[in-house]
Write a structure and sequence with these properties.
Blueprint lengths: L3 H36 L3 E10 L4 E13 L3 E3 L1 H10 L3 H21 L5 E6 L9 H12 L6 E6 L9 H11 L3 E7 L5 H7 L4 E4 L1 H7 L3 H16 L3 E4 L5 H9 L4 E2 L10 H13 L1
The site of one calcium ion has 4 residues, from loops.
Length: about 280
Amino acid sequence: MQSAEEAVRNDELFYQHDSRKHEAQWEISLLTQLDRAIDNGEVWVAYQPKLDVKTNAITGAEALVRWTHPERGPISPDKFIRIAEEFHRIERITRFVINDAVRVAVDLASQGHDISISVNISAQLLRNPGLPGMISEILALHGLSSERLILEITETDRLDRSSRTFQMLQRLIQSGLRLSIDDFGTGNATIDYLRYLPATEVKIDKVFIQAMEANRQDHLLVQSIIEMAHSLDRTVVAEGVETGTALEILKGMGCDMIQGYYVCRPVPFPDLVERMAGEHER
Ligand code: C2E
Ligand code: CA
Ligand code: CA
Ligand code: CA
């Protein structure tokens, strides 16, 4: 006979197993739907403006991929990007996003807004030798010059100067693209990336920005990151700015640009255009 304790334990194991099985099935079903979703417009790109705090002008925007599933509603990119990386779909998604972003930059330029567009590049894709070719092909197709595109790179591992990743980053820089170190401060190779990588921009992760109003340690940390990045001639962007107070603090610290719900949420392209037109009138 099973003791009551054993029975509970078995139940727990059963449910754990069951939920893991569900999770796996859900991932497989997402994956099988992803290709179709890109083709039929469920996958689209939102844009979040970057505000220059000194001039109060929008000087850039970040492309953030979205998947609006007809039954399940919005699916978080954190979730489906991870699955796409695992099952070799990241190149396809990135091509789709860059293509949209470049078209958007050209469209805005034709309306007199010369802004730069940032796209997120998975660490995994940096090991794909076809990446520079894919990007230059899209730029050529739409006639956009490479310095208008910023690639946001997230640190994952140590950045060894002899590594394939490092060589890839050099190639991208040589082709005129600009690099931004995303989620700065959260990885395990932060200083390596600052030392070795001629990135033009550093993006302070939103965990620090959101903690800084209440926590003195985080406040000092943000200030130090800005000073360190500036001494190395990098532009500093703060992400996740949600309040006027945060904006004022960052302004006081000499931060160059901010991004966050306080300025604007990630929005469909037409809403970005409307927002940019409003800028002009001010
Ligand atoms: P990330 O690159 O660090 O992007 C910033 C995230 O913060 C975005 O979440 C953005 O919507 C959100 N955010 C912006 N302002 C605020 C704010 O004021 N408060 C808060 N709480 N959040 C804010 P999102 O769009 O859900 O994207 C999550 C992550 O998914 C991104 O983090 C990025 O790592 C990844 N991702 C998104 N699009 C792409 C893509 O096209 N390619 C790749 N490889 N990754 C992508
Ligand atoms: Ca980013
Ligand atoms: Ca981040
Ligand atoms: Ca990220």
